[in-house]
Specification:
It is a single chain. By secondary structure, the protein is an alpha/beta fold. 50% of the residues lie in helices and 12% in strands. It has a single domain (5-214), classed as P-loop containing nucleotide triphosphate hydrolases (Rossmann fold, 3-Layer(aba) Sandwich), CATH 3.40.50. α4 (55-77) packs parallel to α6 and α5 (95-103) packs across α8.
Amino acid sequence: MKKSPLESARHIVVEGPIGVGKTSLARRLAEHLDADLLLEQPEANPFLARFYQNPQRYALQTQLCFLFQRLDQMRELAQPELFTRTVIGDYLMEKELLFAGLTLGDDEYGLYRQIYDRVSPQAGPAPDLVIYLQASPETLISRVRRRGVEMERKISDDYLILLGESYTRFFHDYAAAPVMVVNSERLNFVDDSDDFLLLVQRIETMRGPREYFNRGN
């Protein structure tokens, strides 16, 4: 009997813009599947808080720090002896280019792209499955403000809107792995077990390389 996408995947990534709930869903999935977690570490980036206060000055340092941080994590993932179980992550390596395109000027982006193109092959293959979470700009803004993370207080509404639009364009063309696109507006997969299990069921019954799930369907 053919295994479901969740059963057969070794590396699953939950992605989406700030405030959409990707880390919360990654943690819930890891618990459900008895999987290992590979999470972003924004608190380990010494430039991030300064970037939110002065994006123009600290964008390049912030992007490079994240790039090498993620590269170190992905190198470990490429060693099967270190990860014998399924791994659930909350970021795609390729999203570094998405953020770089938003935050860097032309010259800085050109330099960053040269570095990225040289080091990114070391990150290994694409994940086996990507779960892309979407939400309206209003929802993203509300969630970010409500959770009250100190260094996120400086993020402008305009930046959050632009980020959401950039994610939409990015995933419109993304084809490196199967993608389940999830509208998270009506889903509470953290506190509502029925919502979470419904999402899991939809993922397990995926048949094509790209499918869509809206709680209203």
